[in-house]
Amino acid sequence: MAIPESIHTLQRIRRQYVQAKLWLYALQAQAAILVAVAILWRWQLEAPLLAVTAFGILLSAVLYFILRWKSVSKIGLQHVARHLNRQYPQLEDSTELLLQEPQNLLQRLQQQKVAAILQELHPEKVYTLKGAPTYVALGLALALSVGILYLPAAPLAALSPGKEVEITFPEAPAAAADTAAQIQSIDIAITPPRYTGKQTYKAESPNLRVEEGATVTWRIRTSKPAQLQLELNEQPPQAFKQGQEGYAFSRSFTEPGLYTINLNGEKSTFYTLEIIPDEAPSIQISKPKEYTEIRLGEQQRVTLQAQFSDDYGIREANMVATVAKGSGEAVKFREEEIKLNLRGNSRSYRVSQTLDLQQLEMSFGDELYFYLQAWDHHRGYTRSETYFVQIEDTTIVEADFDMTAGVNPVPEYFRSQRQIIIDTEKLIKEQKSISKAAFEERSNNIGVDQKLLRLRYGKFLGEEFESGIGPGGGIPEGAEEHEEETHFEGDGHDHPEFENQNSPEALLDPYLHKHDMEEAATIFEPAVKAKLKGALAQMWEAELRLRTHKPKEALPFEYKALRMLKDVQQSQRAYVAKTGFEAPPLKEPELRLTGELNKITPQNGQQSIDQQQELPHTRAVLSWLAKYKQTGKYTPADAQLLEQAGQELAEHALSNSGKNLKALQDVRQLISEIKAGKKLCASCLAAAEQAWAELLSPARQTPQPGQAVRSKLAEEYRKRLEN
After folding, report:
1. Most buried among 7, 243, 370, 388, by the most CB within 10 A?
2. Please, what sign has the CA dihedral across residues 430, 436, 438, 439?
3. CA-CA distances (angstroms) from residue 181 to 231, 267, 578, 658?
């Protein structure tokens, strides 16, 4: 057999396998489609939930078939060749050679051998597919679809907004008054208040859930003139007004309750009236933090990010900011409202904006207090917590608030470092508006001011003498090379102390113990001295960049120097404890339990407490139910007991709307059956008994005598011990 004919055989096997596999997948998808089509044909779009489910099944079936088709299409001749190798050992695992070009004589001979063997085998169908589960699933889907199509015509969807609701009445007793009039139709329309922004809609069931302040209107048409009343929370019933189209009753509600509709004196079952309260707006602030301090060198701006939300919409929202300037008794406050950039819909707003403190006319040491507030369209109002923003002030030294009095033993440091920072920032702002020569001159002048300030602070480290300047002095390492740029011949900085470094005094100077070294003769501690040296080093760096006309690079070093000076100033405050009276310790071992009690007389008094039994009718009806279970007998007077116990159950239902609604309906049915002399409903008795039992609080546990069961051996042992 020629090799091309063998490849044709492999292609035929692949085509047959793919067709068989796709047929099974199509049947599986068809089973799901049958169920979905049956649901849509039976209920169409009257039941939204079922319609969505049916469309979901259809989409899933189509996607399932497409994915399976793509996976089966990826099966190639290589897969068929490997499958033939597994099925027929006589092919010697060489079927794949038929799909390759021979590279040598050995491969060509093996291809001819495999082609001959494949011709003898006739592999028309070398695969087996399990189709039984697919056919079973298709049969079940077909049976389910037929069952759905022939279901009874009971509606599965909830009542539509325009559908008439139905009020049910218990079975009337034989001796009841004339109730031949029947309710033909009833419509319940709900008009929400204006703050909700909703339109009037119709209720879906007599159990109402309305907005706070909504107006509910009942419209009832009867077969003949009748007397209709609405009874709410066991209050005196209110009559319906008769009109051309029947009877109508309208009222607005702000509290929940239970109501019944009376037709010619006959009460309907109890229905709930729940109130949806209007929630106050919600404010959530993510930025900034509750307390924010803007340090030196930072931008005087605050980012505000907040979220406003309300159930029916926000009417207004703004920010109230208060700026505090000054200190002590001279503090001044200025309050203003800031408009917020609200984004989103009326029910959910997002705020993201930046507060520029300079526009609020704030400076160093000022504080900003702000909070957000929002109003909804009703009476809801919400105010957020107060947030604080403070700009750091370098002119005030902070002190601990403890029982001490502050004493400053050192003179106050110079504060001109802040002025250097202000001048530098001003120069950077005006750089584009002045000439290059003027810019360089002003930068160099600020560098000279920085140098003078550094020398003035250097006096605190003993640098007022020439021996404290240079290596080993108070000037940081590397400062000499910064100063080399300003030293010229004849400027008085010849440093004669370095001219004769080979003298005996210069060689012995590092090893001598001198008591009058300038740097050691200071009032600072080593830690404070290290901070001050660090501040001088930062001044060196700032001076270098100012002298080289780079004020923007010098600004960070100026801020660092100012911060270090503030730390030094704070660390040098000394405190002396205030004097006060200290009471002597009590001699507790000598005074404990030594008082005389002969003049202390206990009070004797009597008080009568009238204990009222909780829920007496409920307890009585539970006793009656236990007796009825044993005898199965009742009297017409028992209906009054059930009526009184039902009122207690209804009062509890007012605080838990809808919880005991079914139990109240069962109680009403039991009362009707007792009046009619019929057999009482067993399920109604069980449900009513459970509801009444849940009303009672659990009984208090009382001590009970212990009853120990002992064996004869233990009892004999106890008697011997007693003897």
Report:
1. 370
2. positive
3. 19, 14, 95, 29
